[in-house]
Structure formats: structure tokens, C-alpha cells
Amino acid sequence: MSALRVVHYVNQFFGRIGAEEAGDHPFTVKEGPVGPGIGLQKELGEAGTVVATFICGDNRAATDLEAFGAELERALREQKADVLVAGPGFNAGRYGLACGEACARAAAMGVPAVTALNAENPGVELYRKKTYILPTTPTAVGMNETLGRLARFAVRIGRHEDIGSPAVEGFYGKGVHHTRILERPAADRALDMLLARMTGATFQTELTLPPVDHVAPAPPIADITKARLAIVTTGGIVPKGNPDRLKQSNSTEWKAYSIEGVDGLEAGKYESIHSGYDGSAANANPNYVVPLDALRELEKAHEFGTLYQRYIVTTGVGTAVVEARKMGREIAADLKTQGVDGVILTAT
Amino acid sequence: MITALGPVASELGANRVVRGVKIPHPCGDPSLDPSGDHKLRVGLARAALGALATKLEAAAMFDRLMS
Prior knowledge:
The structure holds two protein chains of two kinds. By secondary structure, chain A is an alpha/beta fold. Chain A has two domains: 4-169, Rossmann fold (3-Layer(aba) Sandwich); 224-346, no CATH class. Chain A contains eleven helices and 13 strands. The longest helix of chain A has 17 residues, at 321-337. Chain A is globular, with a radius of gyration of 26 Å. By secondary structure, chain B is of the alpha/beta class. Chain B has a domain at 1-29 and 55-67. Chain B has helices spanning 6-11, 34-52, and strands at residues 2-3, 16-19, 60-62. The mean pLDDT of chain B is 93.
């Protein structure tokens, strides 16, 4: 079997260009291995050859991932790469994003790719669905051991070998389900798990649910009669005709619509575009989802301060947690700059 | 947060949850007459205000307040 053409991506630091001052170093291609690539080559042995090293400054890559990805794609094509290895990026945030983007781009163009990041690196959540990411230590202390795992994994994906489940193979789950024929039917396996759970024995679930973030309750609003409140909904209530073409499911964006001088949402002027519930009641009375009429009444009665002049909407159906988290952060940041003290979120 | 799926919202980390009516119409009940329905909605909105003004150590559920 001929040696695989392996391309290695590293940042300016591991590429021996410089430290933070070289953060804007442009995307460059060097022949052969550089820095950790030398260790990677040792681990690959005769199975693969590090034909080139791609180096880009962390700031340069992370501030324009799109441009970085485009340059990387071009360079990968020129190198006729069989496989891409990125990093390891440990717990370096910008480097982790670049490693994730590099691998995602490579995988999308049919070049198998793998990187290694620490579980806390934001690149893990953003890219785990698009590429193989192996776990690693927070700092470079685990470099040698990680390079060994990266090399072995790279050879296997480079040869298009069958890759098993994340638990067996040791990468962060991509959330992809594969069809496999097992000897024992699902009903038997499920009952075994149930019995194990009831007797306190250990068992391995076949469907791992994503972990849930729990946050401490925010402090209460000190004086609600002076508070500025906003309405946010995941119920997909938009102006009739959906002028901004908000997605009906798998939402990735949110919109804000003015309710200045509006005392309630009128039927016929607003509609539900949410694909996850029967919208007939909400269409007949949009206040069922965005309770503007009731809140205006309480505002006039001085039961709270004022209502923020826009309501915010997305559709909460089939939305990926990572997208929901991103939208939540964006909405909270936007409302904070508008001096909003509290939010009433309605969900269908 | 006002939702008919209160236990799910709490389980997933929402700390101030007001029990809504039904999934497709959390803030109202089309089976009521318009005035009763409106009162119901005002009660839910008032419960949300109460929730925002309540000091909490852990997640809690709130029910609508009738005037």
C-alpha cells in the first residue's frame, strides 16, 4: 500500500512563525512537516508522508473563517491530499475554530480530516458534527500521545476504513446514526437496559442525549413597576406573508418586529409560520402566542414599566441546540444594549 | 417563560416558568368566551411579571393570577 499524502494544518505558533505578534500571519504552505508535524511524521511511519504544512495566524484565520477556508480548499487541491490533520488545538479558542473549519472544509470536498481539541474548546461544539475531533489535554502537555492517536486515526480515514461508534473509537460524537445489524433485537436490548437500571447495574445507552446547561436563576427585577420588558417568542408569529422569510423549522435566525403604538396583534396582520404545531388558533388570535394585548393592559395599569418597542421571534422546532444557544446569546446581547431589564419568553 | 410544556422547560434549565394553556395557544383558550379568554391571558401575563420579581434559589413554576 503506497504512503498516504498527509497535509498538516497548524497555527503561527506551532508553525514556528511567531507568538501573538504574528497572529495575522497570512495562510502559507511549507513543504514537508513543521513543528508538531515532525512528531506526526514519526507516528505515521511508512503509512503516510506529511507532504505539506499549512500555516495561518490565529487572528487571521478566526476573524475570517470563510476566507481562511477558501484558501485552505485551494491549497488542499494543489497538494492532492489524501487526508488532512489539523492541530492538535488543545484549549486554544481561535486555533480550535481554525482547526474545525479546516477539517470541515476538507471533509466537505471529500478529503478525510481529523483534529484534536480539548472538550472545553468552543471548536468542539461548533464542528463536531462536521468532522472527527479527538479529545486531548487543555495544554500541549499531551502533545506526543495525541499525535500518536491522530496519526493512527488519519491513516484509517485516509484509507477509507470503516469507523465505529464514538464510544469505541474515541472521538467526540458527531450525532450521526449509522444503520447496523445487531444480533439481538432492539426490544431485548431495551429490556436489558431497563432491568440493569432497576437493579442499579451499569449499562451503556444507545442514544446519548446532549447535556443540558443549567444556570443559576437570575436575580429578580428590583422594581417591576419601573422595568422595561421585552417579549420574545419561539412560536413563529410573524407579520402576515412572512416578509423576511423566517424558516418554518430548523431555525438559525431570529427577527425583531415593531409593536410601537400597537395594542394587540390583530388576526390577518400576523400569522404563525411555525411548522411544529397547528397554527389555526394562533392565526385567529396571534395574542395567544405573543400576549401583547394583555401586556399593554398591564403596562397602562402601571403594573410594570414599559414594553420594549419590538418583539423578537424565531421558530423553535427542530432547532439545533448549538443554534439555539447562538440565537439566545445574540438576542440577550441585543436586548441588553436596548436597556431591557427582563424578558417574557413564550414557547409553543 | 410561558409554556404549556412547563416540566420540559424546567427540566431543560428554564428557571422561571409560567404554566401556559396548550401547546398551540399557550397564552389563551379559544374554548372560552372572548372576555374570559382575555382575563385568562392577563392572568398569565401578571404571573410572568410576578415570576420576574420573585427571588429564586432554584427553578420554580408559577400559575396564572386572577385579578
